[in-house]
Each structure stands twice: as structure tokens, then as C-alpha cells.
Specification:
- This protein is mainly alpha-helical and about 230 residues long.
- The chain has one domain (about 20-225).
- The chain is built from 8 helices and 4 strands.
- The protein is globular and about 60 Å long.
Length: about 230
């Protein structure tokens, strides 16, 4: 049975996700979204111990279903797509990564405030902060992270993804695209409905009524633990 399965996989010699294609970048997007949650929860765990003396893991997800934070995944894919197609000195990659990372953080923070009326981070009061949306220290972190990602992690990860059998990789990407797309739509429209609820608006459609029952504010606060409503 196992031998037949292996032969079935080998019957298609096509290379899966060759080059910097959509399939490869989407897999990296999902992996980056997952690792972003791990990073955020470790940082949150350390902060809880250091600042509050409390031993518990905070929730730092960006969507309702699954341990994913698409903002990290999208940022990683954007940096790879922009900086990974051309060889350059690591110092330049560091500089570009610092500028782009800070810009991404600033723009996302601004859009969340303008579109949804919420803020998930605020660096006001921290050294060298830029309007509370990012800081020079975090930009330096983005620079080092981008340099490591482009020059060390991505080349290895790219080869690993290309080794996935074509007959497994293609349906896997299709499933991931459908799942993550629905997940993000549901999660962020539920968040949008929460914003309207807090402004006193009644549901406009039956979808809003369903969201009020399935995704009440008490539930969403367990998902978006850092989220705060802003005027």
C-alpha cells in the first residue's frame, strides 16, 4: 500500500512551487503567520512574568480560527518578494528591511485605526517611537530579521518547499487558500461588527445578527487581547 502510494507520488515529475511563485509564497505566508503567533506569545509570556509576575500564555492571534497572525505572514512575503529576487550586500538588506519593516508597522497601525477604529499596539512613551506606531529600535529588529530571512532562511525554505511532491503540494495550497481566505474574512468582518456594536449600531443584515450571537465582544476579547477601541 505504501509502495503504491510512493509510486503514485513519483508518477508526476513536475517540480512543485518552482521559483518565486504564488504557491511557494502562500505556503511561506501560512508559516509566517503561524510563527508570528509563536513569537508574539513568547514575548507576551515574558512580559507577563517580568511586569506582572503572572505565569500565563497570552493569546496573540490575528484570526479566530487557528494559531495564525496574517500580518506577520503578509509582511514576510512582501519582504521576500521585494528583496529576495536580487542579490545584494547584507548591509543593504538590513537597511531596506529596517525601513520597510517600520513602514509596514506604521501603515498597518494607521489603517487599523482609520478603517476599524481599533489599535493593537501603541508604543507611545517608548524611546525613539514614531507617533506611537513604531520605534527605531523595532526598525533595527526588522532590519536584522529581514537580513537573516533573505540571506539564510528563504534559500533553505525555498528548496524544502520545492521538494514537496506535486500531487500533495497543489491540493494542499488549494485547501490552505480556501481556509485562510474564509478565516480572514470571517475574523475581520466579525471585528468590524464589534466596532459597530460598540458605537451603538444595530445589525444591518441577518449576517450581523448571526455575528452578534456567534462572535460577541466577550469572545472576541479572548482572541484580540491587545485590541483597544480608539476615537
Amino acid at each position: 500500500m505504501i509502495k503504491k502510494f510512493k509510486n503514485w507520488l513519483k508518477s508526476d515529475n513536475r517540480v512543485f512551487a518552482k521559483g518565486m511563485c504564488f504557491s511557494k509564497l502562500f505556503i511561506i505566508f501560512v508559516l509566517g503567520s503561524f510563527l508570528g503567533v509563536i513569537y508574539e506569545e513568547i514575548i507576551g509570556f515574558v512580559k507577563n512574568i517580568y511586569l506582572r509576575g503572572e505565569w500565563f500564555w497570552p493569546c496573540r492571534k490575528g484570526v479566530i480560527y487557528g494559531p495564525f497572525n496574517p500580518l506577520y505572514g503578509a509582511a514576510i512575503v512582501f519582504l521576500i518578494w521585494l528583496l529576495g529576487r536580487k542579490k545584494r550586500h547584507p548591509a543593504k538588506t538590513f537597511l531596506y528591511g529596517a525601513i520597510l519593516g517600520g513602514a509596514i508597522e506604521y501603515i498597518i497601525s494607521l489603517l487599523m485605526e482609520l478603517v476599524l477604529g481599533v489599535a493593537s499596539w501603541d508604543y507611545t512613551g517608548r524611546p525613539l517611537n514614531i507617533m506611537g506606531r513604531t520605534t527605531v529600535l523595532y526598525m533595527i529588529f526588522w532590519g536584522f530579521a529581514t537580513m537573516i530571512l533573505i540571506h539564510f532562511i528563504y534559500p533553505i525554505l525555498s528548496k524544502w518547499i520545492e521538494k514537496i511532491p506535486y500531487k500533495i503540494g497543489k491540493p494542499l495550497v488549494t485547501i490552505l487558500v480556501i481556509f485562510m481566505t474564509l478565516n480572514m474574512i470571517i475574523s475581520w468582518t466579525a471585528l468590524g461588527r464589534s466596532v459597530l456594536r460598540n458605537k451603538g449600531y444595530e445589525p444591518f443584515t441577518i449576517i450581523g445578527e448571526i455575528y452578534d450571537k456567534i462572535y460577541p465582544d466577550e469572545f472576541l476579547k479572548t482572541i484580540y487581547t491587545n485590541m483597544k477601541f480608539v476615537k
